[in-house]
Amino acid sequence: MKTAFLFPGQGAQFVGMGSDFAQAFPIAEHVFERANEIVDYDLKKICFEGTSEQLDGTTVSQPAIFVTSAAILEVLRTEPRTAGIKPDVTAGLSLGEYTALYAAGVINFDDALMLVQKRGQAMQAAADSKNGSMVSIIGLDDDKIAALCAEASRGQFLAPVNFNCPGQTVLSGSKEACGRAEQLAAGFGAIKAVPLAVAGAFHTEFMASAAENLAEALQSCSVGDPKDIKIIANIDAQYYRTALQVRQGLIKQLTSPILWQKCMEKLISDGCTDFYEIGPGRVLTGLMKRIDRKIRVANLSSVQALNELLTG
After folding, report:
1. Residue 94 falls in the annotated catalytic set
2. Mutual orientation of helices 109-129 and 96-103 as an angle, nearest 10°?
3. Whether residue 203 lies in the annotated active site
4. Non-local CB neighbours of 306 within 8 Å, separated by 6+ positions
């Protein structure tokens, strides 16, 4: 039996996230206060009582999700009732990979948050310079997805970039091509097509300038070799083995597809039986139900959920 900690990515944010933990646990409050010092604005206030418009922006949502997830993680680590729950492996969806690396002791909190902040800023800047978008397609297999992309692209860039679970694939590319894919999806047998509220075409070459900026930011950060806790990489569903691989993986992640389904299938095949989603929302819990219904994920997105875990 092995334990995996899972951390959500962009899109999991909601106004009020983390406030119940900060009220109930001083260590969580401390994490938010420290985050404010690092980002140099009142991130805590935006998380707890901001507007959706403030929180949903790429430059804010990325550090907000990381900090909320880290705060919940610190509660798990320090609360006597949960201190015995320790991961053998960590994984994070896109942005969540930074929290996974922090949880595994590969990057410290200050460096991880600085990287996440710069990542969000670089992705927003890249998005502003390119007219890109993303759309989630429900109910098509890989062959149908390829055919849909071929039909909808019409000379513009469009590609599958998030392989989240069976029957759910996110396409990324030019705004016009994404719009055509949304309109054409039903004709290919899709159950539905959902345009995503994101700034641009993430995980494609549209983010090349962001990858360059992230590479520069990584030069000033301390990254260690993975040791006792394994971390699985989004880009190839393999475990990071060296600090160099971590650095290369984080850069490549910005312009490469996210293989979340393959990551989870590898963890299950390698003997992981206990999964915990640590952070805002229930996105990863929902995806696991589609990947393997036999696997139960303990969702820890609220103090109520934490208490139910302890009393259940």
Report:
1. yes
2. 170
3. yes
4. 72, 75, 82, 300
Crossing angle (nearest 10°) for helices 96-103 and 243-253: 170
pLDDT on residue 199: 85
Contact between 278 and 72 under an 8 Å Cβ cutoff? The reply is: yes
**Cα separation of 46 and 43, whole Å?**
5
The pLDDT tens digits for 15-41 are 999 999 999 999 999 999 999 999 999
Token pair for 171: 């396409």
Other beta carbons within 10 Å of 142: 10
Q: Is the pTM of this model over 0.90?
A: yes
Rounded Cα distance, 147 and 189, in Å: 11
Tokens 């036999």 locate to 294
Q: Which of 279, 274, 273, 272 is nearest to 305 (CA)?
A: 279
Q: Could you tell me how many helices (H) and strands (E) the chain has, helices first?
A: 14, 9
- Amino acid at site 32: F
State the catalytic residue, choosing from 136, 172, 174, 203. Answer: 203
Write down the catalytic residue from 69, 94, 172, 301.
Answer: 94
Q: In the block, which residue shows the tokens 């001083």?
A: 26
Using the predicted structure, report yes or no on whether residue 312 has a pLDDT greater than 80. Answer: no
